[in-house]
Amino acid sequence: MKEQTLPPPPSPILIVGAGVFGLSTALALLSSPRYAHSKIILLDSRTPTPHASPEAPNPPTASLDSSRIVRADYAVAAYASLATSAQIEWRRNWAGEGKYMECGLAVVAARNGGHGEGYLRASLENVRALEEEQEKRAKQKMKKSGTESPPKVESSTSKIEVLEDAESVARVMRGTQGGNGEWGYVNWGSGWADAEGAIEEARRKVQELGRSRTEAGKLEWIFGHVERLLFSDAKQKGDTGTAVVSDREEKTVTGVLVSSSSSSSSSSSSFSSSKRIHASLTILATGAWTPALLDLRSQVIATGQVLTYIQLTPPEAERLASIPVIINDSTGMFMIPPTRDHILKIARNGFGYRNPVHIPHPERPAESGESIEVSIPASDFTTLPAEGEAACRAALREMVPWLGEREFVKTRLCWYADTPTGDFLIDYVPRYGRSLIVATGGSGHGFKFLPVLGEKVMDRVEGRLEEVLAGLWAWGNGKEEFGSCEDGSRGGRKGMIWRDELGKVTNGMS
Known about the structure:
Layout: E1 13-16, H1 20-31, E2 40-45, E3 68-70, H2 77-93, E4 100-101, E5 105-109, H3 115-145, E6 160-163, H4 166-172, E7 183-187, E8 191-193, H5 195-211, E9 219-233, E10 238-239, E11 251-264, E12 269-278, E13 281-284, E14 301-311, H6 314-319, E15 325-328, E16 333-336, E17 343-348, E18 353-354, E19 356-360, E20 371-375, H7 386-399, E21 410-418, E22 425-428, E23 436-440, H8 450-462, H9 467-472, E24 496-497, H10 498-506
Parallel strand pairs: 1-2, 1-13, 2-9, 5-15, 13-23, 18-24
Antiparallel strand pairs: 3-8, 4-8, 5-7, 6-7, 9-10, 9-11, 11-12, 14-17, 14-18, 14-21, 15-16, 16-17, 19-20, 22-23
Helix pairs in contact: 1-5, 1-8, 2-8
């Protein structure tokens, strides 16, 4: 679609959520000349603390963590390609102050023909294809320029080493005296990032861009708890503040109702116990909390994932400094090398724990009395079920035997916004025309796309998202009886309920 055929940009644009999806979208919009005169409202959906400021991130946000994997190693070619683009940006613009480390990624699995091995083989095929494409382009560029040596290629797939057996896996995990998986490969062009540092950097970038805006296109950053969406019947030309019953086209979303809000901009700061925030376009980037605001029962559920951390001494951290990240696609267990603070992370990319609760239907009038069951994050983010902690302990004993009994200094539940296939959900909600976009469904792998994801959300806003991604991220890709993500890389048991598994801890079933 040509630029001149695009409709006028909406204003104001309300982005609900200041995690990866929300911040990346804000950065894209604030950087685009097309939206220079569009007011951007960024709502961080959390309960504010005294003297809260936009520099203070939201603690429960999934991506606020010591480290997250950054890789192009995907079984779906479109994600492998997009992640390669993201890694180029990580190297160029996000690698400062140790925020991005390219130590390699060992992807391993059991030789049993299971789903994990299938995912590994598809990932290997994709990264090899990307490597070949990069080499082809380099040769074409060399030929065109008349140079004798190929130019440097910024690729995340230039160092692929197949690991034929368990001994080969153990060899690349030098210093650990352990191993994991029966075969796999290592991509020395992948690595990990300081997730919390990157989110803080994204917030800083948003603030910096916001300060340079004109009054017409100013950035307003609001803290508050979103109670619900606001709806309007276009024929009535007014905000009803109630929910929609029919799916007729004239129904639109006009914003959100926020409680305990505070706003911060370059010129003002104010507080209000309840506030209606109106927008021409609302973008829901609320992660695992989105099912509480929109009926997504067949499309998105929150699942709790186990994370554990151990503290190393400086000599111990040095001993493990050269190991790659390792992830086992058969079990979902993974380990990320020590941070600058000598923290070693062991975790699971699993089917996770659901937290089913009944809530009033978010799109129906309160007086209807209608309720739905959804899975949303639990209030306890630190206590792990015995099953999850035991899985991390077993993985640590296998991967680094000499640290196998080291105390976990911290544990955490990370709540994914899971979709049935692990694909993002970035699309207009058809029943509300062009007034509401949902941007969620990170499924545990949204963080690595932080540098480029917002551009894709903006492309969806403008109706020019490339066909492959548009199909993968489309509204309506749901699945009846959706209980877990089936992307081929998850481990652990299916069907676990958080409160039931946690009860086994409180009952002494460790």
